[in-house]
Amino acid sequence: MSSESAVSEARREDASERPVVLVIGHGMVGNKLAELLVRLGATRTMDVIVVGEEAVGGYDRVHLSSLFSGSTSGDLNLVDPDIAADPAVSFLSGERVETLDCEERVAVTDQGRRIGFRFAVLATGSVPYVPDVPGKELPGCFIYRTLDDVETIRHWSAGRERGVVVGGGLLGLEAAHALSSCGLATDVVEYAPWLMPAQLDEIGGDLLGRRVRNLGVEVHTATTLVEVHAGADGAVERAELADVADQSDRATLATDIVVFAAGIRPRDELARAAGLKIGERGGIVVDSRCRTSNPDVFAIGECGLIDGRVHGLVAPGYQMARVLSETICGGDARFSTT
Fold first, then answer.
1. Interior CA angle at 275 toward 271 and 280, to 5°?
2. Yes or no: domain 130-260 corresponds to CATH 1.10.10.10
3. What's this model's pTM, rounded to 2 decimal places?
């Protein structure tokens, strides 16, 4: 679909012609929902509009580190050409939904575009958690989340020698792989007693730690970052660490870059402003059909809080997309982790 026709589709506010499914967020899960809706035949009677903040949407965020070893952004593209060619599907990139009026069923973007909808789906994902430590804003400190982040990290790493990754979960290990691919001697700092604590037990975490060390990455578990220190040029020079159980037990690592990949926080600010129910610790509360406190608004992926839990992996997000696509098409699927 041409950008001109996509814009004309998105500007329609009268859902009486054809109902609109508005997907807010064009990450992996939002992209999967659009694909499933087309494959289930929803676009025979509905239009699907997907709005994404990034200039490039629908890419494989899980394998960002492959960009450091020769892959291109095109290699990570997950948008099926057949889906994009469906005349009922519009992808609007580089545009952010700023307000969501659930009662009037209208969303307004940062470009002033008003999009009417029958159903709205929040697939806004998450943001990286950055611990509140002194020096976190220094030149040489980065987050690891997007294509733009990768390009910035790659540029900074050129000609440098050492890097520290804060976070030993899946995203942190991907970031460590990325720095290693740039030729940097890399250390991983993890607060928990073992790596990937959300997915592995102690035995599995220890085995993974040995494997990571054998690949040349140093691992510091049960350890926390307490401060990032600058050198004479004002950029990152040292990372000060402390033992979790004994904060007086300190160590310092020389480093040229610090990458924060220490978990995520659900992006629920749009839903919060719209008056939707939010969990006590964040996340958009949804039921087993991914429906929010408003029956015409849904949430899927890392922004959704289902059964009291936010799932930070893509597989549960894809399952939520499948449940919701069937729900929109009249089915009765339910989300389950069993």
1. 75
2. no
3. 0.87
